[in-house]
């Protein structure tokens, strides 16, 4: 098998001779916060990977110090000026990306260093296996800036359950890798980046022992038996709800206060 490397200023794909695809979010200067261009690039890669029979497994990671800090707040501030139709379309693109990542017929593994916040935690929740090093920090922090974790909620709740969501969705607090493991958001915690890569290779070697079609069927079986499939109606409702909230007064104030490095009005 030929080794392939596709580079982008936003997302890169490196596929080795075993058929292991490494997808890297590549906006380290903003902690891999995603904007429409990154969502489009990542979604395109995920769709292509899903159709490529030569690819056996996928890892997802972030360049630089963080996995992903979630949505780019400059994009969120701009979205407040969108009309409702454009906001629904915009939010729907993220929803479609998350769903396609979650149902990708290949084993997926997130390798987390640094921040995996809000939408970053959503990407983590869509992956089958999640490893993190001790530097990892997580949070479902949307309420801190007047938003809600709408599009990521089916996948995060699928990982941590409603009881934990009742805490972390409402407080927006950050928590470390050990707590993330305890509540089911991640599977294992390792000491550092070197150990993270070593452990990932060990698990990939186990994955590659399985039959590709059987693995794809087993992944679908999990979703079916657990009744965890997300309906288009639910995704549409959540997308519309996020679009409405995103243009609301709290979101405008929350995003502005964050970018202006001041407390939002409701915390004074």
Describe, in plain words, how this protein is organized in 3D:
This protein has 268 residues and is α/β, with parallel strands linked by helices. The protein has a single domain (4-193, 211-267), classed as 2-enoyl-CoA Hydratase, Chain A, domain 1. It is 49% helix and 16% strand. It has ten helices and ten strands. The chain is globular.
Descriptors:
disordered N terminus; three-stranded mixed beta sheet; 10 helices; 268 residues; 10 strands; 2-enoyl-CoA Hydratase, Chain A, domain 1; single chain; alpha/beta; seven-stranded mixed beta sheet; globular
Q: How are the elements arranged and paired?
A:
Elements: E1 4-6, E2 11-15, E3 20-25, H1 36-51, E4 57-62, H2 73-79, H3 84-102, E5 108-112, E6 115-117, H4 119-126, E7 129-133, E8 137-139, H5 153-171, E9 174-176, H6 177-183, E10 188-190, H7 193-207, H8 212-225, H9 232-246, H10 249-259
Parallel strand pairs: 3-4, 4-5, 5-7, 6-8, 7-10
Antiparallel strand pairs: 1-2, 2-3, 8-9
Helix pairs in contact: 1-3, 2-10, 3-4, 3-9, 4-5
Characterize this entry briefly.
The protein has 268 residues and is an alpha/beta fold.
Q: In the CATH classification, which architecture applies?
A: Alpha-Beta Complex
Order of helices and strands: EEEHEHHEEHEEHEHEHHHH
Tally the helices: 10
- Mean residue pLDDT: 91
- In the CATH hierarchy, the third-tier topology is known as 2-enoyl-CoA Hydratase, Chain A, domain 1
Main beta sheet: 7 strands, mixed
Number of strands: 10
* Spans where pLDDT lies below 50 across 5 or more residues: 1-7
Please give the alpha-carbon distance between the first and last residues: 59 Å
Inertia-based shape: globular
Radius of gyration: 18 Å
């Amino acid at each position: 098998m030929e080794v392939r490397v596709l580079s982008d200023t936003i997302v890169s794909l490196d596929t080795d001779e075993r058929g292991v695809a490494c997808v890297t979010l590549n906006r380290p200067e903003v902690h891999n916060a995603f904007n429409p261009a990154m969502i489009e690039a990542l979604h395109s890669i995920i769709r292509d990977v899903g159709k490529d029979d030569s690819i056996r497994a996928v890892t997802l990671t972030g360049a630089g110090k963080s996995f992903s800090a979630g949505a780019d707040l400059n994009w969120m501030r701009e979205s407040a000026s969108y009309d409702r139709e454009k906001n629904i379309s915009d939010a729907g693109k993220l929803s479609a990306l998350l769903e396609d990542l979650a149902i990708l017929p290949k084993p997926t593994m997130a390798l987390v260093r640094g921040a995996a916040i809000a939408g970053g935690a959503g990407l983590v929740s869509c992956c089958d296996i999640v490893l993190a090093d001790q530097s990892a920090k997580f949070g479902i922090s949307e309420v801190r800036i007047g938003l809600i974790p709408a599009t990521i909620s089916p996948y995060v709740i699928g990982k941590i359950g409603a009881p934990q969501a009742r805490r972390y969705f409402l407080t927006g607090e950050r928590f470390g890798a050990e707590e993330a493991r305890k509540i089911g958001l991640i599977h294992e915690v390792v000491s550092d980046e070197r150990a993270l890569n070593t452990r990932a290779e060990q698990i990939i070697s186990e994955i590659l022992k399985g039959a590709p079609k059987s693995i794809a069927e087993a992944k679908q079986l999990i979703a079916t038996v657990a009744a965890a499939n997300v309906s288009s109606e639910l995704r549409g409702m959540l997308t519309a709800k996020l679009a409405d909230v995103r243009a609301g007064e709290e979101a405008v104030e929350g995003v502005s206060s964050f970018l202006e490095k001041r407390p939002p009005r409701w915390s004074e």
